[in-house]
Design goal:
By secondary structure, this protein is mostly helical. It is built from 14 helices and two strands, in the order H-H-H-H-H-H-E-H-H-H-H-H-H-H-E-H. Helix 2 packs across helix 9, helix 5 runs antiparallel to helix 10 and helix 6 packs parallel to helix 13. The chain is globular.
Length: 361
């Protein structure tokens, strides 16, 4: 085997991500233990979380490229949410249940409205009307509708004062187990290659990193995310107080974007390359995984570890905007094409939703 085949090959962007992550982790540590201003400490730790999320996504991409796009998507969905998982666990430990509930919904909304909108705008302005009609994309939309509807049922039972409303915790745990089971059942489809007549060829580049380096980077980013997430949450409460930001808005916008949106930049990049069907599938995979994996796992973890109890009962406004966003994404998918104006409308809608929660929700 040649020397170049075993030598780590970092391009400039790889080096930049690693260097920036190390720098901001160091700054976040100084902020945590050096008594920095709470807002500045929060900003630094949020930047560190974003960079770690990007590094996790890059490491997963290098691993997944060896097994095909299906496996890459599953790995990105499962491991790309590590920073957000840690943030939510530490938030539950701190008793910030409303932040966690809003962050889960906010992550879904950020993908369905903000990230999808950006992908449509970038792809539409560069290439005109783009086609979304792959079999994989349509099936993901159906799975997303089913999973988010199941995710919302505990809230409906609570509002309608049914018999299940008196058993909020056990009902949420049962729903969580069933959602995780549905995720397990969906894995064979997720790993299958899209071979339909309208499938797009996925751009593929040979992995630059050897496996040991990718695993080391992933492990290091995971450990770093655990520490930085703790510091992030520790600075979150005083920062919210200083900026007069309520828990719902902080979770819906700030935590959701810091912990989740960076990894989905790949969807916008694919749209810019006119790989619209694959971009649509990548972006929609994230909300599916949040509804099927992240939220149910956090419900169970909160009970097992004795943290502040998390249930799947959300506020009426959170569920309404969640369902409307999912239905909009479904209409766009079954229409089969996207335009930049649709993307701009989605971004504007995200801004309106975020503003609606500025005063609480």
């Amino acid at each position: 085997m040649s020397a170049t085949a075993t030598t780590p090959m970092f391009v400039r962007s790889d080096q930049g991500i690693v260097a920036a992550a190390v720098l901001f982790i160091g700054l976040a540590a100084f902020a945590e233990y050096g008594g920095w201003n709470s807002v500045l400490a929060f900003a630094v730790s949020a930047a560190a979380v974003c960079l770690l999320a990007s590094l996790v996504g890059r490491s997963v991409e290098q691993l997944g490229d060896r097994f095909g796009p299906g496996a890459t998507g599953v790995l990105q969905s499962a491991l790309g949410n590590l920073p957000e998982l840690f943030i939510c666990i530490f938030s539950l430990k701190a008793g910030l249940v409303d932040v966690v509930r809003a962050a889960l919904v906010g992550s879904i909304l950020a993908n369905l409205l903000l990230v999808l909108g950006l992908a449509f705008v970038v792809g539409g302005l560069k290439h005109g009307t783009q086609q979304l009609g792959s079999e994989r994309a349509r099936t993901i939309v159906v799975l997303m509708l089913l999973s988010v509807t199941a995710f919302a049922i505990p809230s409906l039972t609570h509002w309608l004062h049914t018999g299940a409303s008196d058993h909020e915790k056990p009902f949420s745990m049962i729903v969580s187990v069933l959602l995780l089971a549905l995720f397990a059942l969906s894995l064979p489809f997720s790993l299958r290659r899209d071979t339909g007549p309208d499938a797009q060829e996925v751009p593929h580049e040979e992995p630059r990193w050897p496996i040991w380096l990718a695993v080391t980077m992933l492990a290091g980013a995971g450990v770093g995310a655990a520490f930085v997430s703790d510091w992030f949450v520790h600075a979150l409460q005083p920062a919210m107080d200083s900026l007069s930001v309520n828990q719902t808005f902080a979770g819906l916008v700030v935590v959701a974007i810091a912990g989740n949106a960076i990894e989905n930049v790949v969807g916008v990049q694919l749209a810019a390359k006119n790989q619209s069907a694959y971009a649509f599938s990548v972006i929609l995979n994230s909300p599916v995984q949040i509804a099927l994996v992240l939220a149910p796992a956090l419900v169970l973890i909160s009970q097992i570890l004795g943290l502040a109890s998390l249930t799947l009962v959300l506020s009426p406004l959170l569920v309404v905007v969640l369902m409307l966003s999912v239905i909009l994404a479904a209409f766009i998918a079954f229409d089969g094409e996207s335009t930049w104006l649709e993307g701009a409308s989605l971004i504007v809608l995200y801004g309106i939703v975020a503003t609606a929660f500025w005063w609480g929700g």
